[in-house]
Amino acid sequence: MPPPNLTHDSSLLIIGAGTWGCSTALHLARRGYKHITVLDPYPVPSPIAAGNDINKIVEYSDNNNNQDDPISFAFHATSKAAMHGWRNDPVFAPYFHETGSIIAGHTPDTIQYVREHELFPSESDYVKLESARDFRATMPEGVLTGEFPGWKGWWRKDGGAGWAHARKALVSAFEEARRLGVTFITGTPSGEVVSLVYDDNNDDDNSKDVIGAKTADGTIHRAEHTILAAGASSDLLLNFKKQLRPTAWTLAHIRMTPDEAKLYKNLPVLFNVAKGFFMEPDEDRHELKICDEHPGYCNWVRDPDPDHPGQKRSIPFSKHQIPLEAESRVRDFLHDTMPHLADRPLVFARICWDADTPDRCFLIDRHPEHPSLLLAAGASGHGYMQIPGIGGFVADALEGTLHRTVRYAFRWRPETAVDRDWGDTQGRFDGPNRVMDFQDIGKDGWTAIRYDE
Ligand SMILES: Cc1cc2nc3c(=O)[nH]c(=O)nc-3n(C[C@H](O)[C@H](O)[C@H](O)COP(=O)(O)OP(=O)(O)OC[C@H]3O[C@@H](n4cnc5c(N)ncnc54)[C@H](O)[C@@H]3O)c2cc1C
User: Fold this and answer.
1) Which of 46, 71, 248, 250 is the most buried (most CB within 10 A)?
2) Are 290 and 280 within 8 A, CB to CB?
3) Regarding the domain with residue range 101-158+245-356+423-453, which homologous superfamily does it belong to in the CATH classification?
4) Residue 238 near ligand 1, beta carbon < 6 Å
5) Which fold would CATH assign to domain 1-94+164-243+359-420?
6) pLDDT value at 401 more than 90
7) 125 secondary structure, DSSP code
8) Residue 252 Cα to ligand 1 middle (Å)
């Protein structure tokens, strides 16, 4: 079934006003599409959006050593477009801090992993960090006070790496899209999509096209083209044939004093691939975010969907607390790097969901059986840094002009998910070195933080 004609007057519906949904709305509006509606159960920034965060890592290298690999080619293409936006687009540039980054490991395996997989274009572009003293010297005196036991790292001082104020850039994309005429319907029930709507005029279930989406208030939003960009929750709205694994990570904040916030300014990102990472405190509330690193948590339940009864499935849920074991990992990271902060109370924490594809490559393609449905999902833990540019790739996919190799890498590819190993750590380390299950965390196994608004 060919996709319906696309003109600037076509009705376009985007499900999800998160990182990719807002980027897509912005790019489509800039291309002149006049009838774009975005649905989300929460006002922007949604408290469950992965992109609603005080900071995210941004990285890019001009050189791609592996141009022959379609996934590497495609990721390089989106990252290049993103970096152009971070540096030049007034919607995003104010929120980008090109402060450099440090990438590290602390065991022979993780150090080897960093050397083989994380240094772009080559090791010689980095300053090698061999001792605690080397690490401490990367930041003003008094920031890094730890012993860095076993750590070895590589410091990228030049451009191409740093961090972005994630929430502010997300809101900026939303505001610009709205200024250009995009309609946002947010809040529950009017913005909460409960199902896609299929064309009832066709009796064959497999070739029924999608003609829009239904929201929790019962409204049917009809559209000529529907774009599913609901992050990890996309998996609840369509059978992705195991291509998406909703997986959560954990983040925690501690509060810094105004003087500490001044000292902790313009820092490179410090990232140990098996322990966690931090960036400078946010400028408004002086909160320092720490993410502990691990292969992620799923929430395994038996599938409630009557179409595949009893199958094992990870179902996202929202929680502004983290498991106590994650708090311990956060404190362990602080002990290694900044022991003077290691016992400070947490003032905020949450679990944060994303969706992993089997190869951690994005999924941006029309659905083969529902040609008016375009999927923009599977951000696989590295989709935030793409916000300035990813909507342009979604727009290209809609218009049928996506670069051939990128299109191949981002294609609908259920063949890669047959007999999927749900426990695959996908190149991530630490914690117990396996994907964990929220079902194993008892009700007393969570933090009990009262966030002071
Ligand atoms: C702890 C953590 C740290 C990370 N760090 C980084 C990093 O440093 N750098 C990086 O590049 N990436 C990072 N990521 C990954 C990145 O945040 C995600 O890949 C990216 O934000 C995903 O964007 P998205 O638009 O797919 O999803 P989201 O930003 O989560 O947006 C999904 C939207 O869909 C909406 N939605 C949900 N259900 C419905 C529904 N039924 N109807 C309508 N709308 C719905 C939600 O409210 C939300 O607004 C991190 C992720 C986590 C969890």
Assistant:
1) 250
2) no
3) D-Amino Acid Oxidase, subunit A, domain 2 (3.30.9.10)
4) no
5) FAD/NAD(P)-binding domain (3.50.50)
6) yes
7) G
8) 17
